[in-house]
């Protein structure tokens, strides 16, 4: 999503997204609704509770700056999304992503979740190499 915001400024010839949304509607509807409670949510306390988990997504949440998490939760529901040419967009997504719905118009990694760049780096690299060779 940060790459999309950067693209709005730089107008790149291609944008590559790994496990990311292009519009807010692709984000899990429960998470979007929970974002409305951001101001009264004790993020640091929740981070402490999830800190012992071995799940990669929870580890990433635990180690993130709580101010950043709150800021992102507040703005996500009103995010404008990708405004560029969809032909210049390459998406790689996990079929089991519970945070962002796996879109139909993407390269799919079966049985992968939200953090595909971390959990399935070699598969992402292979798809990128294949796509670059074809282009």
Total DSSP helices: 7
Parts with pLDDT < 50 across at least 5 consecutive residues: none
Which percent range fits the helix content?
Answer: 40-55%
Pattern of helices and strands: HEHHHHEEHH
- SS-based structural class? mainly alpha
Radius of gyration: 16 Å
User: Using DSSP, what is the number of strands?
Assistant: 3
Mean pLDDT: 85
- Broad shape: globular
Side by side, the strands of the main sheet go 1-2-3
Structurally, the number of domains stands at 2
Termini separation (Å)?
24 Å
SS strand fraction = 5-15%
Q: How many strands, which pairing sense, and closed or not: the largest β-sheet?
A: 3 strands, parallel
Description of the structure:
With 135 residues, the chain is mostly helical. The protein has two domains: 1-23 and 83-135, no CATH class; 25-79, no CATH class. Helix content is 44%, strand content 10%. The protein contains seven helices and three strands. Strands 1-2-3 form a three-stranded parallel β-sheet, sandwiched between helices. The longest helix has 14 residues, at 121-134.
Looking at this protein, list some descriptive labels.
single chain, about 140 residues, mainly alpha, 2 domains, three-stranded parallel β-sheet, 7 helices, about 45% helix
Please render the helix and strand layout as text:
Elements: H1 2-10, E1 15-18, H2 29-34, H3 43-50, H4 56-63, H5 66-76, E2 89-94, E3 107-109, H6 116-119, H7 121-134
Helix pairs in contact: 3-4
């Amino acid at each position: 999503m940060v790459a999309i915001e950067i693209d709005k400024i730089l107008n790149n010839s291609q944008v590559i997204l790994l496990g990311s949304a292009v519009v807010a509607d692709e984000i899990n509807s429960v998470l979007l609704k929970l974002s409305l409670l951001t101001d009264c949510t004790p993020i640091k306390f929740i981070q402490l509770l999830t800190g012992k988990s071995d799940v990669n997504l929870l580890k990433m949440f635990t180690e993130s700056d709580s101010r950043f998490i709150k800021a992102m939760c507040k703005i996500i529901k009103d995010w404008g999304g990708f405004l560029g040419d969809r032909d210049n967009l390459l998406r790689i997504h996990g079929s089991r992503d519970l945070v962002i719905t796996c879109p139909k118009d993407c390269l799919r990694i079966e049985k992968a979740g939200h953090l595909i760049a971390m959990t399935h780096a070699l598969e992402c690299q292979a798809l990128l190499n294949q796509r670059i060779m074809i282009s």
